[in-house]
Each structure stands twice: as C-alpha cells, then as structure tokens.
Amino acid sequence: MSSINSTIQRLTLISPESTCNTDLAKGPWAFDKGAPSYGPGASEADATPASTPKQGDIPAEYREASDEELTARILAAKETLGERLVILGHFYQRDEVVKFADFVGDSFQLANAALTREEAEYIVFCGVHFMAETADILSADRQKVILPNLAAGCSMADMADESSVEECWEQLMDLYGNEKTPEGLAPVIPVTYMNCSAALKAFVGKHGGIVCTSSNATTVLEWAFERGQRVLFFPDQHLGRNTAKAMGVPLEQMPMWNPNKPLGGNDAQTLLDSRVILWHGFCSVHRRFNTKQIDKARIDFPGVQVIVHPECPMEVVDAADAAGSTDYIRKAVAAAPAGSTFAIGTEVNMVNRLAAEYPQHHIFCLDPVICPCSTMYRIHPGYLAWVLEALVRGEVLNQIVVAPEVAADARVALDRMLAARP
Ligand code: SF4
C-alpha cells in the first residue's frame, strides 16, 4: 500500500482536485516560516489563534534529505538512544512516521503506553500538542516529552481557549448561582473532551468537572449528571450532542454556546431549561463526512457496514450503522468475518492502515477526497530525525512542559475520569 505522502505526491501530478490541497506535498516546513497556521489539509479554513505555537525553520539537511536518508538517520538515532527513548504514533499520523513508533494508538492509550516504559527518559510524541501535554501530565517528572513540530496543534482544541471558557463560566454562575439543589446537584458540571489544552483540563479539575474520551463519553456524562443538573461540554459539540442524544437528552435541551455572543447567543430561559450546553467547536476532519457519502456507499456496496467516529455531525452518526472511537472502529474491523466491506468515517491515514492490516476485508474511507488532518500532517520524518539526532547529542528540542500547578489540577480531572470507568 502506498503511504498518504506518496499518494498526495502522485495526486499533485495527476489531479489537483483529488486532494483538499496539493500544497501538502511541499512538506510542512513551507508553512512553518510565516504567521501561525494549520496549513493545508482538513483544518486549512479554520481560524488559527495568534497564540498558536510556531515551529520556525529546521536545518536544510533535514528538509532536503531523501526518504531513505531520513529513515537511516532515524533508525540510527533510535538504536543509539535505545531504552532511553520511546516514540509514540497516533492512529492519524502518516505511515512515514508511524513506522518508527514503539506504540500506535489514540491519545490516551499512548499516554498510558508511555507509562509502561519507566526507563524511557525521552517520550517523543508523534501526534499533536494537547496529546504531548497529556503525556507530560501523566509521565514521571524525570521524563521529557517532545513534540517534533511545535506547529502540530489541533484546530478543535484551539476552538475553546481558557479565557473564553472562564468568561462563559462566569456568565453561567451569574445566571444559575452556585447553590446546590436539596439533592446535592450542582447547577452545572464542566466536562471537557481529551482534545483540549492542559489549561482547560485544569479548569474542569478546579470546578468539580471531568475529562472524557470518545470511548467513555457516556460513562462520563452519567457521572456528571449524578452530580449536576446540567453539563457544560467542550470543545466538540458533535461528541457532546451525539452522546447526550443517545442517552435520551432532547435536542432542544442542548443549546450551543457561541463564545462571541452574550450568554453564548442564548436567552436566559433556554439556558435555565438546558441539560447539556454545547461549546461551538468541531473537528474539521470529521466534519467533512456527510450523509450523501453514506448513501453512495450503500448503493455502490450493498451490505457495506458504515462506521463513523462520534466527532462526525449528528445526521452522519444517525445514518451510519455504528459510531465509536478509533479503538471501537479497530475492534469492529478485527472481529468481522473475512470478506466484510466497511466504509469508515474517520481520518484517512487510519482508514488506509486498517485496509492494509486487514486485506481479507474491503475497507475504504467514506470521504473519497484525500484530506488528512492538517496538524498531524505537520509531523514529517525530517522533524523526527531533527529532534532524535539532537537527543543523541544531549540536546532536548521542542520539549512540552505543563506548569506543575496546571498539571496538578488537570490530573484531578483525569483521575476522576479513570475512576468513573469504563
Ligand atoms: S483529527 Fe481533528 S480533533 Fe484530531 S487532531 Fe486533527 S483536527 Fe484535532
């Protein structure tokens, strides 16, 4: 199977319309010089906050090296660093990078996998910024977490910044007060998706809230409803809506909070009647999926099983046969009888890797356009070689450090999630 990178290189020559932006083929360094941006890919049109970290240039020897040279240099650095190094690769990361990973998984699986390598001094996270922060929060103090390209953020995580959420919270406290009901229910419990900054994990930790993943969102919402009359859910409106709807919460009790408007663009009564207040955030990768793609898959492949990620819009989740986390999707594919056909609504790198791992099935991405996650794509083997060779010289580049007081509060919210299970 060809990698996403080589597919994009080929499509650049053949059919520019076949990808969301063929500039991906130029290499991420072309976008690391100017103002912060997500670069080409699914998040290209999302507004990039001015505070987004910039990467800056790396030496030409890494930008200009051939794939073969970079592979040889990365393997040599890995060999030299031995057990002092662990490389983590997210499911959505490109194959050219994932092939060097010691563990491949979702963000939380990877942070936990790193904990099994106590001897590792360096955790190189081939994912995005919030994932490296979570790994830093959960890892031992002596371990250093490194993000090979600092510009690898997450457009969804950036849609909820700390000051906007603080302001929202103040407005909600003014409206609800902070008295508990006679049954002991707080007016509102903040719940954040794992895909957010460490500062927001700390915010929910400080305010009696909890973190969720796409695997445990139902359990976490149940936990929150045992303690509060309603939930403020951020940053992903779709995961919040899809999960709460499946639990029986009516749509009219799930108003959206637009941080640019007073009361989030709602009237006070709507907020008083609400059960789940949804932040105005989304993942631009999963927002690309639509019901027309599902209709076409069903016509082209009768009997196809459509499985989508719960970050997809509600109508897509409703039209699919199943929805679940990356781990759920992997397990569904692994458990299916040979000869099954799957149309999968999640990031194309993961779908293509599943297709290669399970050749007994026919597996394809629901979105026919090759459009990877812009920010995952910013990690290139050139950056990996750059940070690893620096480690060999004893130099730590691109370390991600969460301030101890932030990490302590974030840890409270993560520990609540772990205690809530499954
Ligand atoms: S796939 Fe979506 S949520 Fe995941 S890192 Fe990319 S933009 Fe963020």
TrEMBL record:
Localisation per UniProt entry: Cytoplasm
Pathway where it operates: Cofactor biosynthesis; NAD(+) biosynthesis; quinolinate from iminoaspartate: step 1/1
Names of the cofactor(s): [4Fe-4S] cluster
Cofactor binding, note field: Binds 1 [4Fe-4S] cluster per subunit.
Pfam families: NadA
Coiled-coil region(s): none
GO molecular function, one term: transferase activity
Sites where the protein binds [4Fe-4S] cluster: 154, 283, 373
UniProt xrefs under InterPro entries: NadA (IPR003473), NadA_sf (IPR036094), Quinolinate_synth_A_type3 (IPR023515)
Catalyses which reaction(s): iminosuccinate + dihydroxyacetone phosphate = quinolinate + phosphate + 2 H2O + H(+)
Enzyme nomenclature, EC number: 2.5.1.72
UniProt entry keywords in alphabetical sequence: 4Fe-4S, Cytoplasm, Iron, Iron-sulfur, Metal-binding, Pyridine nucleotide biosynthesis, Transferase
Sequence segments annotated as region (Disordered): 37-57
Top-level taxonomic group: Bacteria
Binding, iminosuccinate: 90, 107, 193-195, 214, 309-311, 326
Similarity field: Belongs to the quinolinate synthase family. Type 3 subfamily.
Function: Catalyzes the condensation of iminoaspartate with dihydroxyacetone phosphate to form quinolinate.
Protein name per its UniProtKB record: Quinolinate synthase
Organism: Paeniglutamicibacter kerguelensis
